Amino acid sequence: MLRLEFNDLLGRMLRVDDLETLGVSTQTLAEEAIRAGRIDEAVALVDYFHQEMRIMHNIMITWLTDISRYIVARAGETENASDITNTLFKTWRTYLFGEALRSRCTEAIRAATHDPLIAEEAIDLLDKMRLEFKNPHDVLVAWVQNLLAGIAERWGEEAVLESILETHQSIWGDRYENWLKLTPHERMALTVEGMRGGHFSGERRRGDMTLRDDGDRLVMVMELCGSGGVLRRGDPETGRPPHPLGEHGVNQIPHDWTWQKTGVHWYCSHCAIAMEWLPYRQRGQLLRPLDHVMDHDAPCTWYVYKDEADTRAYHYPRTNSPTPPAAPDHGEDPFTEYPGGS
Fold first, then answer.
1. How many domains does the chain have?
2. 324 is a domain residue
3. What was the pLDDT predicted at 15?
4. Do residues 290 and 302 touch, judged by C-beta distance below 8 A?
5. Per-residue DSSP letters for 141-179?
6. How high is the pLDDT of residue 342?
7. In terms of residue numbers, what domain contains 261?
8. 15: left (phi over 0), alpha (psi -120 to 50) or beta
9. CA-to-CA distance for 201 and 228, rounded, in angstroms?
């Protein structure tokens, strides 16, 4: 059941539906409300869908700005690096993606009370709004991948870690500042939001995913991940093939911050760093572990533990993080392709 509520800790609206609907695209729920004539609900969902997409767009631009600042500073322009990169990305930051389409869509919704043709027009405008974010989003993901590959080529693989650590606070640190104050369900809702309307996950690229409750943890399964997954597999909506790697597009040396694997896309390495490797080294606990697998056609599975002390033992060895003595051990092998059994 849809629950779109203001979250005091985040200072904004957040979908906190039951698991049965939380993994359903906000776009889909808005379409259903439009066709059913639930005007206020439809308008609220359109506004929230725009918010989901805009938040992730801003995150991607912040990341690209920080990576570029790192490159400029490391190349010797330390004094002017921030000014140079902020100027370069100003257009991406201020361009009004989706604003006009959101306004036209909500106007059509209000005018469609007794006219199914206008309702379908509103639904078409809603999809155009998604595409106005989704198309540049995929370019931005590829851009991050290419810049990190260039860093690895020029300064070595450890420089990729260094560049991601420099942007960690402005992206993941700020976003998850109140993580421990949120309820487990709110943590899951925030997690899903980023990969739903933020990264356009799922075969239809609308933000669909499968959620379940394992008792000790909440589980999110993306088929496929809309960022690194599309980079690796290609875009099923358009038929665009996987993004070309180039010589330095994946790591050649196993690192603790690449799950001790080689062949990991540089874009995907941030999941190991920001969700597992760095949180453990900062506070002795993983933030939100996941099952990264080398099969590009595999689903991507993430875990939100209801109590961090119950994080299962198999998650720790992959980033060479010492396993707490009390960590529950269900016999999973951390180095199998599907350690979580799904």
1. 1
2. no
3. 98
4. yes
5. HHHHHHHHHHHHHHH-THHHHHHHHHHHIIIIIHHTTTG
6. 46
7. 4-319
8. beta
9. 10
- The verdict on residue 210 lying in a domain is yes
pLDDT surpassing 90 at residue 265:
yes
Closest CA to 20 of 47, 36, 2, 41: 2
Specify the 3-state DSSP secondary structure of 129.
helix
**pLDDT surpasses 90 at 111:** no
Give the CB-side neighbour count of residue 89, counting CA atoms within 13 A.
21
Sheet holding 290-291, edge to edge: 210-213, 217-222, 300-305, 290-291
- Is the sign of the CA dihedral 190, 196, 201, 203 positive or negative? positive
Look at residue 76 and tell me if it is in a domain: yes
Do residues 162 and 70 make contact, with C-beta atoms less than 8 angstroms apart? Answer: yes
pLDDT tens by residue, 28-41: 999 999 999 999 99
Q: Could you give the CA distance from residue 241 to residue 252 in angstroms, rounded to a whole number?
A: 23
Whether 326 maps to a domain, the answer reads no
